[in-house]
Amino acid sequence: MIKLRITITCISIYWALAVSAQAVEYSFNNNCKIELPTKLELQDSELNSVKKTNNGKKHQVSVNSHSGHITFQQRGLNANTKSAFDKYCRVIIEYFKEKSNEPTLGRGDVIPIDKDVLDGVVESAKHNCRSGRAKFIKLISLENLKINGLPVLYYSYKRQGWEGKHPPVIVNVYCVFNRYERVIITFSYRESEREMWKDIHNFILKTFKFSSVY
Questions:
Q1: pTM for the complete prediction?
Q2: How wide is the angle at C-alpha 75 spanned by C-alphas 67 and 17, nearest 5°?
């Protein structure tokens, strides 16, 4: 049993290092950073605002966007690679600045989850589904987490594929609070492809950080 645990641990470490070695560090408007594996690419509409560098250890990309958000997708869509359309994965990062005299939650705070929060999350999920022309199916989870010590309101839900013509999709939403700013990170993938994106999903969460922490 001990040898088995050691083997599993070694495999996990090897996988983490392998994914890290293939990752690209993205800086978003100099406000926050995240590392994404090369299985994902920046959506074509964002490519006119990219500066690429290499510090010898990792590839780095600086993205400037006036829209307040950036979107990533499975690699190959920009080039219209046929096999890329057989899968579905999106990573959307949205940045919001809070009013200086109205700071929100920050390091050390815990997000209380009550009926009002639950109702707000369900309504937000349904609104996003309507905007994306997909039917909301059910809320899967709602909890408070931490990413690099910062409070996070996390929830996930299941929806239909676009216009009901594609397989069901699992949507994971992380609202990360940093006093005077917050970021919403949304990870979406087909339910049937959960195993394909699971490790990458966890890896991305561990690499997100704000440029400054308040």
A1: 0.86
A2: 105
